[in-house]
Automatic annotation (TrEMBL):
One of its GO terms (molecular function) is sequence-specific DNA binding. It comes from the Bacteria. It comes from Xanthomonas arboricola pv. pruni str. MAFF 311562. The lineage of its organism: Bacteria, Pseudomonadati, Pseudomonadota, Gammaproteobacteria, Lysobacterales. It holds the Pfam family HTH_8. This is Sigma-54-dependent trancsriptional regulator. Residues 3-38 form the DNA binding HTH domain.
């Protein structure tokens, strides 16, 4: 299940050109939640 969430977050980020705020809005979560869930993988 976690892999699906990670894939959805990556897909949203790709679709938004790396814009975390826009990806978070698209996913229906806050920007800080997206950063936290991405963790060290964001880089």
């Amino acid at each position: 299940m976690e892999q699906l969430a990670q894939a959805a977050m990556r897909q949203a980020l790709d679709a938004c050109g790396g814009n975390v705020a826009q990806a978070a809005r698209r996913l229906g979560i806050s920007r800080s939640t997206l950063y936290r869930r991405l963790g060290p993988q964001r880089a």
